[in-house]
Amino acid sequence: xxHRVDHRKLNxxxxxxxxxxxxxxxxxxxxxxxxxxxxxxxxxRRYAERCITYGKKAIAQTDPARALHYRRLALxxxxxxxxxxxxxxxxxxxxKERQGGYTRVLRAGFRLGDNGTKALFELV
Length: 124
Description:
The chain is α+β, with helices and mostly antiparallel strands.
């Protein structure tokens, strides 16, 4: 039974998994699209959606202290100042009126070495 199972473990330790998600989502914001495996893309989608929501809240705030708070939340989720800057300045304004579903995961064939399912993880 898989009652209340929250996320995929991806056969990694928790520290490695968190670092993987931070790097994958930061690369998504900097480049717009990333090719990775299907389970990694599906798991990273959760982090990316949350970060884009932080970015939207940061640009919507009139109080600078609250805007800084959301930028810091995004920084703790991404771990890269360049990625946060790209998020707040370019990515979040595109989705100002959108209520969710900021990313897309498309299957992109199979990897040559081990026949793993590749996926194109991109911003909508």
